[in-house]
């Protein structure tokens, strides 16, 4: 049976738009209520990517920008599965990541933090999940960095993660945090998420099973996208 | 105790932050790394349809341009067909049509623009046709979860569009309609907050 619409987003699980402790949200959050829309063809479709879109080193941040040697920092693997809310794998979907270097400095012309750029670290990668929804990256563990929110706010170490799924309405950007980081629970961006269980969902545990002895540690980060229900007892979507 | 439902929860969203370009458009961040950046070509040059250019600015609640926004768009081809297996007509979709684009504004002015073809009307729910439209998704620093909206065209007949008609207040419908500023040129400003705030969709 062909599945139909996506489960509605649980807007009490996600952060709301207006979260004043994260100051930038104050002027960038809509004041009117969103218009709820049942899915049409425009929502249940989305861009399709293939291996022709990416290069062989794109998921290896230790190698993909290195010129004179390896980047400095803690060598790690970040891996996991992309699943939907039904627990089904999401195969062949594009996962993109970006991050700061080991000192918390981004390779971006607008980042002026005094920690130096690493000449051998770009800080971005991308990959496609395999048939079982599995993905992996190799990278350097990013450092914490300060940001102008309150006078002394520091972001916990994090990797930004962007995922597509199969439909434009599954589109998601989030951040992955590292198990045990004491900065997580005092971060106003983390705390935009109202439910502590939802925050836990963004904290990647150390995964010694996937670590490579004498080479690198590993963290496991599963990503869950919206699930879909089947068209039970319902007039089918036009053309579906 | 009833049986547990056992659904997984969707990973909660977080803001894309100020440096989203590093991951999604590294050229805009100031460095080259990938063989090709994704989302630069929505419709290859030989894709049939009327060539159009869409431009605009995203404004915050103070009326200032949001210069660090990143926008993605998704649209059907000139015949109203999506290049996706869920569209039952997708085998007939124009060759070389990706339908998806990624747009970064000028960091000084906030002005963004993209070139594509004008989409055709798409079948909506219950057989009602939707007027030609482009789906937008916006992320930026200060935006905790990506904002979805749609852009319609001033020079199309939007009167019967089922989504526009869901908007209770007629003046708010206008916020989704791009103005034609010349042959094949459209202006679509997005206001995140305040007067003439754009309608955002919970899709």
TrEMBL record, chain A:
Top-rank taxon: Bacteria
Gene Ontology BP term (one): 3,4-dihydroxybenzoate catabolic process
Broad class of enzyme this protein falls into: oxidoreductase
UniProt keyword annotations, A-Z: Dioxygenase, Oxidoreductase
InterPro entries per UniProt: Intradiol_dOase_C, Intradiol_dOase_core, Intradiol_RC_Dioxygenase, PCDO_beta_N, Protocat_dOase_b
Cited SUPFAM superfamilies: Aromatic compound dioxygenase (SSF49482)
GO-annotated molecular function: ferric iron binding; protocatechuate 3,4-dioxygenase activity
EC number in record: 1.13.11.3
Entry-linked Pfam families: Dioxygenase_C (PF00775), PCDO_beta_N (PF12391)
Domain Intradiol ring-cleavage dioxygenases: 78-106
Similarity comment: family membership: Belongs to the intradiol ring-cleavage dioxygenase family.
Protein name: Protocatechuate 3,4-dioxygenase, beta subunit
UniProtKB/TrEMBL annotation, chain B:
Entry's EC annotation: 1.13.11.3
Keyword set, alphabetical order: Dioxygenase, Oxidoreductase
Top enzyme class: oxidoreductase
Domain Intradiol ring-cleavage dioxygenases: 54-82
Sections of the chain in a coiled coil: none
Record-linked InterPro entries: Intradiol_dOase_C, Intradiol_dOase_core, Intradiol_RC_Dioxygenase, Protocat_dOase_a
Domain of life: Bacteria
GO molecular function: ferric iron binding; protocatechuate 3,4-dioxygenase activity
NCBIfam families reported for this sequence: protocat_alph
Protein family membership: Belongs to the intradiol ring-cleavage dioxygenase family.
Descriptive protein name: Protocatechuate 3,4-dioxygenase, alpha subunit
Organism: Rubellimicrobium thermophilum DSM 16684
């Amino acid at each position: 049976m062909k599945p139909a619409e996506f489960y509605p987003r649980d807007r009490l699980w996600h952060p709301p738009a207006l979260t004043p402790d994260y100051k930038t949200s104050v002027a960038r959050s809509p004041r009117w209520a969103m218009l709820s829309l049942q899915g049409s063809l425009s929502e249940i479709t989305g861009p399709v990517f293939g291996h022709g879109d990416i290069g062989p080193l794109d998921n290896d941040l230790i190698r993909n920008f290195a010129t004179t040697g390896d980047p400095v920092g803690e060598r790690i693997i970040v891996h996991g599965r992309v699943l939907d809310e039904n627990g089904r794998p999401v195969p062949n979907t594009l996962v993109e990541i970006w991050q700061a270097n080991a000192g918390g400095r981004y390779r971006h012309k607008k980042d002026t933090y005094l920690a130096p750029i690493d000449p051998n670290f770009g800080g971005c990668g991308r990959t496609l999940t395999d048939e079982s929804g599995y993905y992996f990256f190799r990278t350097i563990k990013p450092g914490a960095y300060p940001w102008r929110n309150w006078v002394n706010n520091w972001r916990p170490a994090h990797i930004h993660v962007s995922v597509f799924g199969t439909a434009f309405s599954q589109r998601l950007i989030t951040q992955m945090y590292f198990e045990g980081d004491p900065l997580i629970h005092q971060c106003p961006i983390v705390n935009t998420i109202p439910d502590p269980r939802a925050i836990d969902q963004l904290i990647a545990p150390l995964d010694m099973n996937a670590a490579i002895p004498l080479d690198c540690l590993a963290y496991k980060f599963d990503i869950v996208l919206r699930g879909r229900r089947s068209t039970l007892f319902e007039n089918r979507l036009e053309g579906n | 105790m009833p049986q547990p439902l056992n659904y997984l929860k969707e990973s909660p969203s977080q803001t894309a932050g100020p440096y989203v370009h590093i991951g999604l458009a590294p050229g805009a961040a100031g460095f080259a790394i990938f063989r090709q950046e994704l989302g630069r070509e929505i419709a290859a040059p030989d894709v049939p349809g009327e060539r159009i250019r869409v431009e605009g600015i995203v404004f915050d609640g103070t009326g200032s341009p949001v210069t660090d926004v990143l926008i993605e768009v998704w649209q059907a081809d000139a015949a109203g067909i999506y290049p996706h297996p869920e569209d039952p007509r997708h085998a007939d979709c124009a060759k070389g049509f990706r339908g998806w684009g990624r747009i970064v504004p000028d960091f000084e002015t906030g002005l963004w623009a993209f070139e594509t073809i004008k989409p055709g009307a798409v079948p909506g729910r219950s057989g009602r046709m939707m007027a030609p439209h482009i789906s937008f998704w916006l992320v930026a620093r200060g935006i905790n979860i990506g904002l979805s909206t749609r852009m319609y065209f001033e020079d199309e007949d939007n009167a019967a569009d089922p989504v526009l008609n869901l908007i209770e207040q007629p003046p708010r419908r206008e916020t989704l309609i791009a103005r034609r500023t010349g042959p094949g040129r459209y202006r679509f400003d997005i206001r995140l907050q305040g007067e003439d705030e754009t309608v955002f969709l919970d899709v």
